[in-house]
Design goal:
Helix content is about 50%, strand content about 10%. With about 280 residues, the chain is α/β, with parallel strands linked by helices.
Length: about 280
């Protein structure tokens, strides 16, 4: 069962614990505090949330006091807060919990996908078809749980204020299915979202050739808060981790710039979307 805590807050706390340890060896700190060395390693890499009493012992060992101590204790408390996705922790892995959490906080999402639309932009019928062919659920009930997770994530598009999305997709996404019962609702959803103005579509035409193919998927999230970090989620480049990384930010920007230069303008992309929808009707 995936851990019932926030991977983002736990990861941030882990970075702080690693900084406190400095040049000391893990085994030295573990011996001095009575914390298992394997557990201590997991606390620092964010894969396991440190118990409050263990955190207190570490802070005592490193003589962390005052506002700094309280900030780290608060960070641990933040990691234990329960959100809607906690109800689905039996089917969600550590990676997806982190992605959903960042997504829920984000004010802006920019993504690059290949021959399908990003999960947030998929209509439930398209998501269900995708589940039928590509997922490995053990039962219809579990598949329905996955679709409920999708529906709850998609509500973020209709929040007030809504999540703003810029997405680069290949024209082949319009040919993802041959079923009109899938494609008509899918394209109608995209039409409605682009009409509202907070979803901006950039389509890479098939005429772009091999240069326009996307060989990885990467998403970038940013936040409203002043001086807040930018977390980069990269499904392929970083093995499915959510992280703050200047290197990944640079790789995202380069990929975005290269593919944007090949893509149709948002106006042309929307026109293409309308034409494809009209063909189905």
């Amino acid at each position: 069962m995936p851990p019932h805590f926030s991977p983002i807050a736990a990861g941030a706390l882990g970075v702080e614990l690693g900084a406190l340890r400095g040049n000391l060896l893990l085994r030295e700190v573990a011996k001095a505090t009575g914390i298992d060395v394997s557990d201590l390693s997991k606390y620092e890499n964010g894969s396991k949330l440190i118990p409050e009493r263990s955190l207190e012992r570490l802070l005592d060992f490193h003589d962390v006091q005052g506002t700094r101590r309280q900030a780290l204790l608060n960070l641990r408390e933040d990691a234990t807060k329960v959100h809607w996705w906690a109800a689905f922790r039996e089917i969600l892995d550590h990676q997806m919990i982190g992605e959903i959490e960042v997504e829920a906080k984000a004010a802006l999402l920019e993504e690059i996908v290949d021959d399908c639309f990003g999960y947030l932009l998929q209509h439930p019928t398209a998501r269900a078809e995708n589940a039928q062919y590509y997922w490995k659920q053990s039962s219809p009930d579990e598949a329905e749980l996955w679709l409920e997770v999708h529906r709850r994530r998609q509500r973020r598009l209709f929040d007030s204020p809504p999540l703003h999305v810029h997405t680069l997709v290949h024209e082949l996404a319009f040919e993802r299915s041959t079923d009109p019962h899938v494609m008509i609702p899918q394209l109608t959803l995209l039409r409605d979202l682009t009409a509202q103005g907070h979803v901006v579509l950039h389509v890479i035409p098939k005429t772009a050739g091999a240069a326009g193919r996307v060989f990885f998927r990467v998403k970038r999230y940013s936040y409203d808060e002043e001086d807040s970090p930018t977390y980069v989620f990269s499904e392929a480049l970083t093995a499915g981790t959510v992280q703050e990384s200047e290197r990944e930010e640079l790789r995202f920007k380069r990929a975005w710039a290269r593919l944007s230069a090949l893509a149709l303008s948002p106006e042309e992309s929307t026109d293409l979307l309308h034409r494809r929808l009209k063909d189905w009707l």
